[in-house]
Write a structure and sequence with these properties.
303 residues; alpha/beta; TIM Barrel; 2 domains; 8-stranded parallel beta barrel; globular; EC 1.5.5.2
Length: 303
């Protein structure tokens, strides 16, 4: 309870304090640092997805600059031989300012990735963005069927229906690539499950439907019971190891990550970097209240 209270207070504290938590979960502030960390992960048989941190911009000029930054990231990561793909947040590219401008920016980024036979993951943000993000996927899949995928959040009550609606984009030749996560945004009980067991139950139901339809699930979780449940489903449906992957966040549950890699499961780590790390970091704080408590204790010991 105390740790949870601390995690709610820390986001309102000075950035220098929050950085004490953040640096464990962020690859750095520059693309060079992200590439360096990605290559080290590649060395231990872990793929990556690089993300430029930032969201909810207020000017379209920012969206243009952010698009150029993504193009630069792709060019540098490909030149360095990183074994990984890329993730982006639509609001970082203007989704809430001009949907068409956002689409065109993301299209250019996907086009750049496709030139390297690579892939862009559209991250899912809070619920006002859900329908717009799904629409982006539908449009982009028409032109780049193998180079774009989406994230869906198991905590939202609509998610299984969304997966079923998106099944029309799935085919044996090009399986629909969806990252399934629990979701970290604070949504209203009317639209989101709140209880741990309920969220886990729906996560596994969503995953099972994806496997039944022979989609390509990116199983994004650090929760051991969910990992175990996913492994049982993969065995139940005899899923080949080139038809799924596990995904985890940079700096989180390295032992669980290593156990999956050692067992031969494909695994990808989300590698975020950039100067706009505050929003991402505070969500990690709220997701992991115990870490917030550790930080405060360390501060008092130093004092």
């Amino acid at each position: 309870m105390i740790n949870k209270l601390i995690s709610q207070i820390l986001p309102h504290m000075p950035p220098q304090l929050v950085w004490m938590f953040s640096k464990q979960y962020i690859a750095g502030e520059t693309v060079e640092q992200a590439i360096e960390k990605s290559k080290k992960l590649n060395d231990i048989n872990v793929m990556t997805t690089i993300d430029v941190l930032g969201e909810f911009i207020t000017k379209l000029e920012e969206a243009e600059a952010n698009k150029r930054e993504y193009i630069n990231v792709i060019e540098k990561a490909e030149a360095a031989g990183v074994k990984g793909n890329y993730s982006l947040k639509p609001t970082f590219l203007g989704l809430l300012l001009d949907k068409e401008v956002c689409y065109q920016h993301i299209r250019e980024i996907v086009q750049k990735a496709s030139a390297y036979d690579n892939f862009i993951r559209i991250d899912m943000e809070d619920s006002p963005c859900t329908d717009m993000s799904i629409d982006l996927l539908r449009r982009l899949k028409e032109e780049f069927p193998e180079n774009v995928g989406l994230v869906l959040q198991a905590c939202l009550k609509r998610t299984l229906a969304d997966i079923k609606a998106l099944a029309v984009l799935n085919s044996p030749e090009v399986p629909l690539n969806l990252r399934l996560c629990k979701g970290v945004y604070d949504e209203l009980p009317a639209i989101a499950y709140k209880e741990y067991e309920t969220i886990n139950q729906h996560y596994l139901e969503d995953l099972e439907y994806m496997l039944q339809q022979k989609m390509y699930p990116a199983i994004a979780t650090h929760d051991k019971p969910l990992v175990d449940g996913a492994l049982k489903l993969l065995e139940k449906y005899n899923v080949a190891k080139d038809r799924y992957e596990f995904q985890m966040l940079y700096g989180v549950t390295p032992r669980l990550r290593a156990s999956l890699v050692d067992a031969g499961h494909p695994l990808r780590v989300y590698v975020p970097f950039g100067e706009k790390w505050f929003g991402y970091s505070t969500r990690r704080l709220q997701e992991n209240p115990a870490m917030a408590g550790v930080i405060i204790k360390a501060l008092f010991k130093k004092g």
